[in-house]
């Protein structure tokens, strides 16, 4: 089998580089679409269910919760770890659930973009093929 010529290798690298760039562009467009749909929940936020009791009755409510204060408060300029959403199915509840969903999709797309950026770096720096250290 004939050895690939240097020119063929460079053309192959260029073609792979361009395919990866197109994939990154498509993924970035998906992220833009997510941002246009509505807000993203803060990173690491989730919707939590909690119980309140009053007059021997139990009520279930929902809140958007984060591990650090990052949610605006209605009555203060300070940030909070919690945002009350009310009962299941309220517009606030559904908006929060969907914002958490959009955040998780956006984060996963970003991880893929970061991986593809590493691939571009490998191709452009020539580190795809490295010499192996001889073992004793």
Task: Describe this structure as you would to a colleague.
- It contains two helices and five strands; from the N terminus they run αβββββα.
- By secondary structure, it is of the alpha+beta class.
- The chain has one domain.
- It has a three-stranded antiparallel β-sheet with strand order 1-2-5, with helices on one face.
- The longest helix has 35 residues, at 91-125.
- The two termini are 32 Å apart.
- The mean pLDDT is 89.
- This is Transposase.
Backbone CA Rg: 24 Å
Instruction: List the domain count as a whole number.
Output: 1
Number of helices: 2
Q: For the report, how would you describe the main beta sheet?
A: 3 strands, antiparallel
Strand fraction equals 15-25%
What sort of overall outline do the alpha carbons produce when their principal axes are compared?
A: elongated
* pLDDT < 50 runs, ≥5 residues: none
Report mean pLDDT, rounded to a whole number.
89
Compute the separation of the termini in Å: 32 Å
Briefly note the structural class of the backbone. alpha+beta
| Helical content class | 40-55%
The beta-strand count equals 5
In what order do the strands lie side by side in the largest sheet?
A: 1-2-5
What is the N-to-C succession of helices and strands?
A: HEEEEEH
